[in-house]
Design brief:
2 copies of one chain form a homodimer.
Chain A (H helix, E strand, L loop, with lengths): L6 E2 L2 H21 L5 E7 L3 H17 L2 E7 L5 H13 L5 E4 L9 H7 L11 H8 L8 H12 L8 E5 L6 H10 L3 E5 L6 H5 L4 E4 L17 E4 L3 E2 L5 E2 L4 H5 L4 E2 L6 H18 L3 E2 L2 E2 L4
Parallel strand pairs in A: 1-11, 2-3, 2-4, 5-6, 5-7, 7-8, 8-11
Antiparallel strand pairs in A: 9-10, 12-13
Helix pairs in contact in A: 1-10, 2-10, 6-7, 6-10
Pathway (chains A, B): One-carbon metabolism; tetrahydrofolate interconversion
Protein name (chains A, B): Bifunctional protein FolD
Catalytic activity (chains A, B): (6R)-5,10-methylene-5,6,7,8-tetrahydrofolate + NADP(+) = (6R)-5,10-methenyltetrahydrofolate + NADPH; (6R)-5,10-methenyltetrahydrofolate + H2O = (6R)-10-formyltetrahydrofolate + H(+)
């Protein structure tokens, strides 16, 4: 028996490495009198959102990023929320603005997303930032797919010319992921709930990215031997355990690399949010002998 | 011998049909005191650009769209061009603005594209419009892929669940085409110069879209029997004849539908430019019992 066992792409370790580097960049910024500052707006009492927002504050604090904690009532009007966003748009001491989604029904998420100044849009969800990304001229990148790209960098996994298959076409993962892979010269296929014979596509993938939101949706037989498998899922199974979109045990026997759940993609998302905030704070600042102008 | 012969997707006929409908919509607008108005900016003396711009003026005139013909010197500064664009942005009588590309070297095409007010961006090239398209909330659509979508509507060719393969990843055809097909529930693969074993992808396509810019690049063996083949190419072969990216004679023996070159995609592009201009002029106007608010 010679069972192949996939190497783990360790998001805990990699995100720690990234956060340590960010800490140093923040120190340099502070020496120049600049403290990176992130405004985090939470509307209402959604429990999951509260946890996410808490984790973002904590991650920021550890790196030295200052956060502003804005908690608004569930019944706030759209107009009031937009006024808040504009206030932080105009405040030069704020480098990043984040409005935690989902929002209550009376508020248009699209309007709020579009109201955030693109140069402070740390989530990379503003249409103009999505547009720049799809035109291969990225300014701000959605955090989850950006975090996934970091695995390929760190583990030196080639992308150019590879057959990348993405399962799921959401605006925050599937679509921007496709753009990033395409911008890195992969051949990219986007599959989704309307795809026929899904397995025929996934079985041809050199790089398979599952972002579908169904526990253990991708099975061993769906994966090409030697593929790199990225599991974006965060689902609770019937025993209440956190599981991914990939049946990890079986798929690990055929894949060459796999992101575990938990400890894979998850920790990378927040790390990328922090990196984007630091990048925005660095903009226009002289660091060493270079003036940083990246968006 | 039972050679299948692909049916032609007739762009000349379809674009005429669309232009006739637009003529009626313009008449309605004029009865309400509104004349759709398109500003066309041409910089320099590029011969191909002159022809394109001339054709756009002529098409507009036939439909009843008024055009403003702005011809600027080859050595104009970026600043001067941006001032012109802003002038038309602020002019409420202008519904659409188009800057013919390519631009001279001293001018950033990106800056100029971004300077056009998104609500007057008839080409659909502004990053915010590309972003809206990729987020499945289109406001203004790039004309060539939009024209291609019209064939599927007219000939009632299903898209949902089909395997669509696009050859070429330009910002004006390949990428927005991918978004439109994905938004219509196709499974979409984007291939390009770095794709390995291209033929393996194209041979699986139910719908194959060639936008690569090489004469007769796609051959009979690259096409699945019964596929719908869209030929976006406009190349001169060694005899000076206008030919597409698809080897039309051979591919016609296996495809179910094909766009000819000339007379396929080409005429649709200008028709879509006209439609976008009319749409923009209709915005906010009461037509029949509906108030038009489409972007």
């Amino acid at each position: 028996m010679n069972k192949m066992v996939a190497k783990l792409l360790d998001g805990k370790e990699l995100s720690k490495e990234i956060r340590n580097k960010l800490k140093q960049r923040v120190t340099v910024l502070k020496e120049k009198g600049i403290t990176p500052k992130l405004a985090v707006i939470l509307v209402g009492e959604d429990e999951a959102s509260k946890v996410y927002v808490h984790n973002k504050h904590r991650a920021a604090e550890k790196i030295g990023i200052e956060t502003i904690d804005i908690k608004l009532a569930q019944d706030i009007t759209e107009k009031e929320l937009l006024l808040q966003v504009r206030k932080y748009n105009e405040d030069d001491s704020i480098h990043g603005i984040l409005v935690q989604l989902p929002l209550p029904k009376q508020i248009s998420e699209e309007k709020v997303t579009c109201a955030i100044a693109p140069e402070k849009d740390v989530d990379g969800f503003h249409p103009v930032n999505i547009g720049h990304l799809f035109m291969n001229n990225p300014h701000s990148l959605p955090c989850t797919p950006h975090g996934i790209m970091k695995f390929f960098e760190k583990y030196e996994l080639p992308i150019a010319g590879k057959n990348v298959v993405i399962v799921g076409r959401s605006n925050i993962v599937g679509r921007p992921m496709a753009a990033m892979m395409l911008n890195n010269d992969a051949t990219v296929t986007i599959t989704h709930s309307k795809t026929k014979n899904l397995s025929e596509f996934t079985r041809q993938a050199d790089i398979l990215i599952a972002a579908v939101g169904h526990a253990a949706f991708i099975k061993k037989n769906d994966v090409k031997p030697g593929a790199v498998v990225i599991d974006v899922g965060m689902n609770r199974n019937d025993k209440g355990k956190l599981v991914g979109d990939v049946e990890q045990k079986g798929v690990s026997e055929v894949a060459s690399y796999i992101t575990p759940v938990p400890g894979g993609v998850g920790p990378m998302t927040i790390a990328m949010l922090m990196e984007q905030t630091v990048k925005f704070a660095e903009r226009g600042v002289q660091i060493g002998n270079r003036k940083v102008s990246n968006g």
